[in-house]
Amino acid sequence: MSKITKALEKAARERIQRHEEHATVKASEAVEIPVEISSRLGEGTPINRIKIDPHIVAASDSSSPIAEQYRILRTNLQSLRLRPGAKTIVVTSSIHNEGKSVTSINLAMTLARQEGVRVVLVDADLRKGSIQKWLGLEDQQEGLSTVLARGGELNGALVKLKQPGLSVLTSGPHPEHPAELLESSSMKRLLERLRAQFDVIIIDAPPVLPVADPGILAAHADGVLLVVQAGKTQRKTVTQAQALLRQMKANILGCVLTHVEYYLPGYYRYYHQYRYGTKDAVKAANGNATSPVINDSNTERAPSTPQEATS
Predict the structure, then answer these.
(1) Could you give the number of structural domains in the chain?
(2) Number of other CB atoms surrounding residue 245 within 10 Å
(3) Which residues is 293 bridged to in the sheet?
């Protein structure tokens, strides 16, 4: 047996072992992560605890390699030359189920952990918003749709997480005409109010190809992050989405690759032993929370394999 064959078999065994150690966390097995929050709906009673999905690694496992990748993403964003003042960043994808909402939440939480940085996360997917599900806020009746319906007045609709200090505006009840609401003067007034209160506004938008909503939101933003699922999303799909965003005069900051498989288990064990003084295996869930990697938006195609995405 050749040395190459032995090396391939060894790599295959390592991948199987890694998948057994870090099995995908199913929704039915979600771990309870209580987080104290305060929310005033008018003069209502504050909410005490919420249960955050374990895919939100910025809250559930901030020392994991995946959470570290979000910190790298934060650094990459801060290195970009955007206009002075409050920053508005739209996070979208080409199609559904590429991990844009999980990316939005993890990025917003990572940004909010910086001292002195005020961050608000807005779920602008008025058709299929999911931030309330990931954060355990299904009972939240106030949201973006209700705020826009009353002219852009917040009136206590923001939910304030205490750790990290992140404000959240969920999508609210599904309206009949979401695009018209997002294009209304109420949306402009709301963004003006948010810019006056926060340093960074992260907007989770619907996918680009099915609806026009992301283009409407991009017109109000400093930049757009396009989330791409590595190894699944077709290159022509990403290229089409980028072309549409450019037609809408959007400033594409880059592409964030999700579901990236790193074939370096030994490196991560060494990294955590070096940084945290432990030999325990990293318990990071796969799925939507897999490591994000930001790429230059000028690339002509999306990577066709996880290996290519990290090369």
Answers:
(1) 1
(2) 22
(3) 257
